[in-house]
Design brief:
globular; 8-stranded mixed sheet; 165 residues; two-stranded antiparallel sheet; alpha/beta
Length: 165
């Protein structure tokens, strides 16, 4: 199984504010859908509750929760390790948030699919963990210029090149 992390990360590593994204970039959402459709997405309880229409279509949705069990259209497990034990060996799994799940998964992920936004939001209360520790190498980078209402950003794919103890 390949474990992938996918996120849109501001310059200060902000990813959310009041259980919502800090930036809505249409191309980022399109990329997210393209990469995750047909695969498994794993999310925390609060991330699930932030989804406007519930479970994401055309994907196996897994929610991690120790307190709730009713997530329509989703499999529910109490931990990341338990969820991963129920994923096929040849499957692509995408960790889609939130911050504590990203932090836990960063140690075991194979790839990062990040939209790195060249701006800092005025408010944020959730941040992506630091990932500039020599563990990751840029596999590809696609820069996008700022447009009306959208800051400059880059689609950056990282591949793990080292394991940290």
């Amino acid at each position: 199984m390949n474990i992938n992390i996918i996120a849109a990360v501001a310059a200060n590593r902000a990813i959310g504010y009041q259980n919502d994204m800090v930036y809505f970039i249409r191309e980022d959402l399109r990329r997210f859908r393209q990469l995750t459709t047909g695969h498994t997405v794993i999310m925390g309880r609060r991330t699930f509750h932030s989804l406007p229409k519930g479970a994401l279509p055309n994907r196996r949705n897994i929610v991690l929760s120790r307190t709730e069990t009713d997530f329509p259209g989703c499999d529910v497990y109490p931990s990341l390790s338990e969820a991963l034990a129920h994923i096929a060996e040849d499957e692509q799994a995408f960790i889609i948030g939130g911050a504590s799940l990203y932090r836990e998964a960063l140690a075991i992920a194979d790839r990062l699919y990040l939209t790195e936004i060249a701006a800092t939001p005025p408010q944020a209360d959730v941040f992506f963990p630091a990932y500039d520790d020599g563990t990751w190498t840029v596999e590809s980078r696609e820069d996008r210029q700022a447009t009306d209402g959208t800051p400059a950003y880059a689609f950056v794919n990282y591949i793990r090149t080292a394991r940290h103890a």
